[in-house]
Design goal:
This protein is an alpha+beta fold. Helix content is 21%, strand content 43%. It has 2 domains: 43 residues; 139 residues, no CATH class. The protein has 2 helices and 10 strands. The strands form 3 sheets. It has a 6-stranded antiparallel sheet with strand order 1-2-3-6-7-8, with no helix packed on it. Strands 4-5 form a two-stranded antiparallel sheet. The protein is globular, with a radius of gyration of 26 Å.
Length: 190
């Protein structure tokens, strides 16, 4: 009697264990689709969408990746983006560039590689554009460390009449152009 009882306990336990742990391929597939859908919807629901631009500058491959915030009626310069403080030049994670070959930025050499890109806006005069060796920063300027700066250049901002709602960083003449609200910041790259 005791042997039969023990056998029944093992059979029931085994059946429960098997039924709880086995998934059909259809269930596993549905679970994966749900995970992928959640990742896509979180990417789509970002207030500042991730933008990736690729192109060529002087015949060399160039890529820039950044979060594109919107103005949303806010006061940007000197308020949301303070003057004389390092700004991640976008939103969320640090903006970064990827150069396939050595290039010159405002006449100074920048070796091939990936770099985070920051700016220091100024109320008057030229802005500082910074290329930093720590390119994969999840929290942008909050993780910025000046000791990792590879290159700093000075660039003259231009103020235009027509406002642009979303920040854009485009690969175009004279190399890279940052636009947001009424700002146009052309960076000469060759």
């Amino acid at each position: 009697m005791n042997n039969r009882y023990t056998i029944w306990v093992f059979v029931i336990f085994g059946a429960l264990l098997f039924s709880c742990s086995s998934k059909t391929s259809e269930e596993a597939s549905t679970e994966m689709e749900t995970m992928e859908s959640t990742e896509e919807s979180s990417e789509e629901s970002r207030p500042s969408p991730l933008e990736v631009k690729t192109g060529q500058i002087s015949g060399k491959d160039f890529r820039v990746q950044y979060g594109s915030p919107a103005v949303k009626g806010r006061e940007l310069w000197g308020d949301l983006v303070p003057y004389n403080v390092v700004w991640r030049t976008g939103a969320n994670e640090a903006t970064y560039v990827d150069l396939s070959a050595d290039m010159t930025v405002e006449g100074k050499t920048l070796a091939a590689g990936k770099y985070s890109m920051f700016t220091i806006p100024k109320e008057n005069g030229k802005w500082t554009v910074i290329f930093n060796s720590e390119w994969d920063l999840e929290h942008g300027h909050f993780q910025y460390d000046e000791k990792n700066d590879v290159l700093r250049v000075e660039v003259s901002p231009e103020w235009v009449a027509e406002a642009q709602e979303r920040l854009s960083i485009d690969i175009e003449s004279p190399g890279l152009v940052i636009r947001w609200e009424k700002l146009k910041l052309p960076i000469t790259i060759q």
